[in-house]
Amino acid sequence: MFIVKYKKIFLSISVILVLSSLVSLFVFGFQIGIDFKGGALTEVVYQNNRPLQSDLDNAFKTLDLGSVLIQPTGELGYIVKSIDLNEAQHSLLLKTLSEDGKSPLEEKDFNSIGPSVGRELTRKAIIAIILVSIAIILFIAFAFRKVSKPVSSWKYGLMAIVSLLHDVIIPIGLFTYLSHFYGAEVDTLFVVAILTILGLSVSDTIVIFDRIRENLKDKIETNFSDTVGRSLDQSYMRSVFTSVTVIIVLLSLFFFGPESTKYFALMLTAGMFFGTYSSIFLASPLLVLIEELQSKNK
């Protein structure tokens, strides 16, 4: 019940976090990765054992080759994305990958890549987000059609979308800090992380909304705010425990995984944390606030 009682405090925290993230976005912006601005793609296969990715990442940090993204392929290969390379830089790249000849390799492919793939992915991601948002509103409005009082069923869907925006904007704001201070770059993994956060977050919100729907049908409380409070008491621990288990796995990936997926894991960790927060402390209290405003206007 305390969540509903102190709803204005929790809503204020969300507003502050969202505004801070938007300010960070406009002040710092992003560093655009190779996937979006184009560059060179090199594929190599080692004759014996391939070097550790972390060793290669550290080696490239000492060179003047800009951002270099290394991705394992197969059992003995790497795909390397970099800036456009001249002949000397290309030779330096291969020399570094072979650890000065200690790890013999064969270059399987080398060509330039354009930013069109990244732009196409971004366009499709935006379209997907818009279509998914409309589908969520329609689905929730249909599923909640029998409990449309005192809050209209479509408003449940609208609050779910508000929560989704909250869950995406804050991790994006965090990424702008990483981009500005640590050189993190926006790549296709960034887009995948955003879409994954959307999917994880909305499921948590719908679970709590479904509990509210069942309690409204059973009329366990006399007023709407008490029903929402009771529903949160019955379901918030489930959301917390589920999120904690996922966050533990993501933190393991962040600390022990390859360098190329660290920011991806961090984005998902932030998305899971704030997604759980919004499901409990934002979406449901917003429903109560809407109901209170409706009552005052009658």
TrEMBL record:
Alphabetized UniProt keyword annotations: Cell inner membrane, Cell membrane, Membrane, Protein transport, Translocation, Transmembrane, Transmembrane helix, Transport
Subunit structure of this chain's protein: Forms a complex with SecD. Part of the essential Sec protein translocation apparatus which comprises SecA, SecYEG and auxiliary proteins SecDF. Other proteins may also be involved.
Span of domain SSD: 125-289
Gene: secF
Regions crossing the membrane: 9-34, 125-144, 156-177, 189-209, 240-257, 263-290
Coiled-coil ranges from the UniProt annotation: none
Superkingdom to which the source organism belongs: Bacteria
Location of this chain's protein in the cell: Cell membrane
Alphabetical list of InterPro entries matching this protein: SecD/SecF_arch_bac, SecD/SecF_bac, SecD/SecF_CS, SecD_SecF_C, SecF_bac, SSD
Role played: Part of the Sec protein translocase complex. Interacts with the SecYEG preprotein conducting channel. SecDF uses the proton motive force (PMF) to complete protein translocation after the ATP-dependent function of SecA.
Main location: membrane
Pfam families the UniProt entry points to: Sec_GG, SecD_SecF_C
Membrane-topology annotation of the record: Multi-pass membrane protein
Name used for this protein in its record: Protein-export membrane protein SecF
Sequence similarity: Belongs to the SecD/SecF family. SecF subfamily.
Keyword Transport: yes
GO cellular component assignments: plasma membrane
Biological process terms in GO annotation: intracellular protein transmembrane transport; protein targeting; protein transport by the Sec complex
